[in-house]
Amino acid sequence: MTEPLQISELFYSIQGESTWAGMPCLFIRLAGCNLRCTYCDARYAWEEPAVAMTTADVLAWVRQYPGILIEITGGEPLHQAGVYPLMQALIEDDRRVLLETNGSLPLANVPDAVSIIMDIKCPDSGMAGRNLPENIDLLRKRSQKQCADEIKFVLSSVADFHWARDMVTREQLDQWVTVLFSPVRPLLTPQDLARLLLDHRLKVRLQLQLHTLLWPDQTRGV
Ligand code: SF4
User: Which residue lies with its CA nearest to atom 3 of ligand 1?
Assistant: First the structure.
């Protein structure tokens, strides 16, 4: 029998990131993370005690919101083996499922029906050494199967921007996957990042965290 899921929080909000930004969304935040990014805004997911729940418990909560988009996030959700039966159960419930992952764990067993939003960690995160290069190859293969995946760079500085731009160019990411560049405010302002994107003619999407604009004083449940 699968271990129960360790849940940090369940909440219903507006999707603030990715190309799904603006959509009402159910968030399943799994506890625990194998990384320690300098800018982490979800430390409570790995610092505070979790609540044990079964897949059936989570499904019962989800079913109170018929048809609503679902995001599984963390922490690092792939850190828990129970995430796989959870993804399968949500797909069988006919849901559109997004999986936010930090890119440091293998993606090979994520179902094709799940949209992966994978971070590539930049140097200022302190975690760039943890990116798994084979995950890029796997996403490339999934793109040939029309999987709706996205790659996200969280940028803390102009140096991070240039590092990310070199990666986009080298892997030709903008040719086969949706690429998101997201600034860490106030270290890099949205205005400065917008100017850099335009000046360098990059075909990537500027991502602002919509939930932080809607609810600037809330750090959880949004
Ligand atoms: S991977 Fe995400 S949850 Fe984990 S430390 Fe980094 S920002 Fe925080």
Answer: 75
Stated pTM of the model: 0.95
pLDDT grade, residue 221 (50/70/90)? confident
Determine the distance separating the centroid of ligand 1 and the alpha carbon of 41, expressed in angstroms. Answer: 8
| pLDDT tens per residue, range 1-22 | 667 999 999 999 999 999 999 9
DSSP string, 9-77: EEEEEE--SSTTTTSEEEEEEE---S---TT-S-THHHHS--EEE-HHHHHHHHTTSTT-EEEEESS-G
Question: Domains in the chain and their CATH numbers?
Answer: 5-214 (3.20.20.70)
Please tell me the distance between residue 145's alpha carbon and the centre of ligand 1 in angstroms. Answer: 29
Ligand 1: centre distance to CA 127 (Å): 9
Q: Which of 214, 40, 68 is nearest to 127 (CA)?
A: 40
pLDDT at residue 42, rounded to an integer: 94
Cis peptide before 133 (omega within 30 of 0): no
Token output for 64: 């109170």
- Average pLDDT of 104-133? 98
- Pairing of β 69-73 and β 97-101: parallel
